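can u pls check wat happens w/ NAP
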Amino acid sequence: LRIALLGFGAVGRRFAELLPGAYGRALRVIGLRPLLTAIGTARHGFAIDPAGLDPAECLAAVVQGGALDALHRGPRVSSASAFIRALPADVLIEVTPLDPRKGEPATSHVRAALRRGLHVVTANKGPVAFARRELQALAARLGVHFRHEGAVMDGTPIFSLLERCLPGAEVTAFRGTLNSTTSLVLSRMEAGETARAALREAQALGIAEADPSFDLDGWDAAVKVCALANTLWDAALVPAKVRRTGIAGISRLDVQRALRAGTRLRLVARAERRAGRIIASVGPERVPLEDPLAGGGSHAALAFATDLAGEIGVFQLGGTVDQTAYALLSDLVFLAASSKSTRIGRASGRRKRS
Ligand SMILES: NC(=O)c1ccc[n+]([C@@H]2O[C@H](COP(=O)([O-])OP(=O)(O)OC[C@H]3O[C@@H](n4cnc5c(N)ncnc54)[C@H](OP(=O)(O)O)[C@@H]3O)[C@@H](O)[C@H]2O)c1
């Protein structure tokens, strides 16, 4: 299984760290030998080696602030599009930052890789929110997969659950605390910390967006609402149509007042389908302490209202970048299970290093 990473930040690096050990073992159990053949970044250069890159060497190169170019073999590559055109890979893992207004350039990266006949796995919710229908159709036409489990609630199985676990039932609405950074900030404010200190903690954990205002202003949650609604209802909802209020105006006093009233302030994302229309919002709400959405720290929760199975939910305790990296692995395992007849299963006789 020849793997290329586009984006080598918090998520890409954690994936690469785990590939030689636990992730490699999980893939070998199902008959795949993983080989990391390419890494592309914005400021740390590009490295492609059809014979395999050593993840530890790549990590060492960027951790010291250096570039990957010294590890590159073959003709020079200087842009993400040239990188995708040159990839000796079976699957592209797209983990560049979120652009909540247009979902670019990630959507173009995904489209270009699919057109080349590569499977694509992403934790980037932009392409799912803005172009899921088009990208799934393209993938289906070309006999490859477009998987995005990490786009909502990191490694918690959301899209797999919707795809496989509610046969015959229809989801009519959902509500969730989908942005771990704002949950962490609000819960630290309950304990008397400043929002700024709590945000620094989220950044140190690697869970904040590259531009953390996308977390605080509710954009990240709005994009996730679109990713979910568009998947559930085959819709074309865009983040600008989600009624959105962030947490920037919330003070420690507000948070503590809510707590004294037996509630917790949380940034709640909601959507429902009513008379064929989707009504979606993101905003701070007082959530009763006993509600599953009232978790502390970076916990996240999502509840689905269904017509036949009542309200069911999933939660993630203390989300970190580990869970997002796991989402990538889980999508790769899914690919292997459902791609027996594609070239993903034929990558085995190659030299490997990871
Ligand atoms: N972190 C999380 O816990 C988490 C959770 C769920 C989903 N996600 C999603 O996963 C994705 C990656 O998150 P992250 O935290 O790893 O982000 P990050 O730390 O900001 O890393 C982004 C990486 O993408 C590279 N990059 C930026 N623009 C690029 C471009 N135009 N072409 C090629 N490479 C480019 C950056 O290059 P440089 O290294 O040179 O800057 C960096 O390596 C995001 O879409 C995010 O929303 C993250």
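The radius of gyration is 20 Å.
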